[in-house]
Write a structure and sequence with these properties.
A hairpin with a 5-residue loop joins strand 7 (144-158) and strand 8 (164-166). The longest helix is centred in the first third of the chain and has 25 residues, at 4-28. Among the domains are: 50-193, Immunoglobulin-like, CATH 2.60.40; 274-523. The protein is built from 12 helices and 23 strands. Helix 6 packs across helix 9. By secondary structure, it is α+β, with helices and mostly antiparallel strands. It starts with a helix and ends with a helix.
Length: 626
């Protein structure tokens, strides 16, 4: 028998031989390379290729100026039509609209239309032009008509990605599919023939997302975040990683992404600040009573005023979305109270759907003995319910006696109350809601010269002086006052209202209570106990905030306002976002809170954010290099 030492030696020799044989075999066998994903550069293999152009809404922008000018031009809506050109092929709405064949209105909301253009197979790009042609009266008494192009939008549509560039593009300053021109504002959409009808092009599905181009992704939500793949693709979110869409609000308008998604049919855009209003009127008391409604002309004035500051206003006065939505005529009720709420709570409870609370502001036009209006927190201390009168008392109080004056003064009153829902509150700014001491002393300890300084120099519709004590046509420097102040009169009595506006004010409790014991604005005592940021499970990272705060402002889609950034992190798995970017507008003394604007991943010392552009560029580079 072999000795123990000999057995060990033989065993070692066998192990060495086996290792050597294995290494020799590895050298002979080719090393398997990681397979690269095969690019499918086909554009429309499942459908005859075509481009659809939808015209969702066209709004003439001139009515506000006409309402603030002498004459009867405000009664004469424009006549216009649109022309669509795709790669030289033209289609026109002329002759296909109503009795006249053209639009004769200030705003076509609710009258969507579309055209389809057949294009050659596997075409990569199409040049698209959308023109608005207006029929302008000429000659003696306007008997002749001249067709004038008032707006022209030039675009280049990419069939691979479904995006377009040119005069409108993804993440531009006024929102994709929305063009704010000099004369007209246009909402539109472009999309191509798509087998599964989810709006995601075949090329994107197979090369970028890895989804099935034969299955409708508008019905799928693989990351279970409440929003389907098609919407997340459209607005640049990762469809396969959970996003906190119930908190994400990159445009800081108080309408979170999940709500933007639900309002997608009504022009909502997560990167474009929006204000949504539901309005109801009130039954007339008798035949000679004025209509208690939010006039279309008054609506257009408010829409235009905010449009000039990059904010879209949408007013439901009868969309028919909810059984008790906008456009109702409420039971006649005189002299609603602005402190106790009283009947307004009943209207708010039974005629303003719960699904809209916290998303829409509620505006009721009715009757009031003093001819005024108010905004009041009917639930908790959220200022989202507005009541404005439109009756004979309003005419006398506001010095408005013609149909045009009545509409202008109603618009002024509603713009004023909307200002409160945006953070412009008395007590924070001494000039707001100020009136002559002969009428009511709201700041009894304020010296007369200071009081008069605010009264005359705070040039804003938030100053009652320019609603009730001046005629509707009062102007300064040749401009009729229907605006918040731009601060041009200078400190200390004037300031820029627009820089202090905070859109989500209507959602949060304001820092002071207007209880019945309050007699003057000097009794307001703002107490800011309302937390600026609550994020359970997340930790503030001071170093990351200091390092990236300036760069991360790119995730905030508000205009003309500085923001403060906070970066929060948490422990998470590799398939989760573990970094959040919060932003708070600098609108002091208006109270604001932090909004979640972006989510990313912190991997070691590296921060990554999902980028569709990077994914597309990578695939295109591979195509170009073969």
């Amino acid at each position: 028998m072999l000795a123990k030492k000999e057995k060990i030696a033989i065993g070692l020799i066998i192990v060495v031989i086996l290792i050597f044989a294995t290494l020799l075999q590895m050298q002979k066998a080719p090393i398997e390379k990681k397979k690269e994903k095969v690019i499918d550069d086909r554009i429309s293999p499942l459908e005859n290729q075509a481009l659809f152009v939808e015209i969702l809404r066209i709004r003439n922008r001139s009515l506000m100026n006409k309402m603030l000018s002498y004459g009867l031009d405000w009664r004469k809506p424009p006549s216009f039509y649109y022309v669509i050109e795709v790669d030289g092929k033209k289609g026109s709405s002329k002759g296909n609209v109503g009795e006249t064949g053209v639009y004769t209105t200030w705003d076509t909301i609710g009258y969507e239309s579309s055209m389809v253009f057949d294009v050659e197979e596997e075409k990569e790009y199409s040049n698209v032009v959308i023109s608005i042609i207006e029929l302008v009266p000429t000659g003696l008494f306007g008997r002749n008509v001249k067709e004038v192009e008032k707006e022209r939008i030039s675009l280049k549509y990419d069939y691979r990605t479904g995006r377009w560039t040119g005069d409108d593009y993804f993440m531009d300053k006024d929102g994709m599919g929305h063009y704010l021109g000099k004369n007209y504002e246009i909402w539109f959409n472009l999309y191509q023939a798509d087998y599964d009808h989810d709006g995601i092009p075949y090329w994107v599905e197979v090369n970028i997302l890895g989804t099935d181009p034969t299955i409708d992704d508008s019905k799928l939500d693989p990351d279970n975040d409440g929003i389907p793949t098609d919407w997340e693709w459209k607005y640049g979110y990762d469809p396969f990683t959970y996003n906190e869409h119930s908190k994400l609000d990159p445009d800081i308008d108080g309408i979170e992404n999940i709500e933007e998604y639900k309002l997608r049919e009504y022009f909502a855009n997560p990167f474009q600040p929006d204000i949504y209003i539901e309005t109801d009127g009130m039954e007339k008391k008798g035949f000679f009573d004025l209509p208690h409604i939010f006039y279309k002309e008054s609506q257009q004035m408010i829409i235009e005023r905010f449009a000039r500051h990059g904010i879209n206003v949408y007013i439901d006065d009868g969309w028919g979305v909810y059984p008790n939505g906008g456009g109702e005529l409420l039971p006649y009720q005189a002299n609603l109270d602005d402190i106790l709420g009283k009947q307004l709570l009943a209207f708010y409870k039974h005629h303003f759907p719960d699904e809209r609370k916290g998303i829409f502001r509620y505006v009721v036009v009715g009757v009031r003995q003093d001819g005024g209006g108010f905004i009041t927190p009917v639930k908790y201390n959220k200022f989202d319910a507005i009541y404005v009168s439109n009756d004979f008392n309003s005419m006398i109080t506001r010095i408005a006696f013609t149909p045009r004056e009545i509409r202008v003064m109603l618009a002024k009153a509603i713009l004023h109350e909307l200002g409160h829902s945006l953070g412009l509150m008395p007590g924070l700014f001494p000039g707001i809601d100020i009136v002559s001491r002969r009428v009511y002393d709201r700041y009894p300890s304020m010296p007369d010269d200071e009081y008069n300084g605010y009264l005359e120099k705070y040039y804003s519709v938030m100053n009652y002086q320019y609603i009730y004590n001046k005629p509707w046509f009062y102007s300064e420097n040749g401009s009729y006052l229907f605006d918040y102040s731009d601060g041009s009169n200078g400190a200390p009595y004037d300031w820029n209202d627009w820089e202090h506006i905070y859109l989500p004010t209507f959602q949060i409790d304001v820092p002071a209570y207007e209880d019945p014991s309050i007699e003057t604005f000097e009794d307001f005592k703002p107490v800011r106990d309302y937390p600026e940021l609550i994020a359970k499970g997340w930790k503030y990272d001071e170093n990351l905030t200091k390092k990236y705060a300036k760069d991360f402002t790119k995730f905030v889609f508000i205009k003309n306002t500085d923001v403060e950034i906070k970066v929060l992190i948490k422990n998470a798995s590799n398939n989760e976002y573990n970094l959040r970017v919060y932003a708070k507008p600098n609108v002091e003394p208006v109270f604001a809170v932090y909004s979640l604007v972006a989510e990313g991943k912190l991997i070691g010392n590296k921060i990554e954010f999902y980028s569709q552009k990077a994914l597309i560029d990578e695939v295109m580079k591979r195509i170009e290099t073969g």
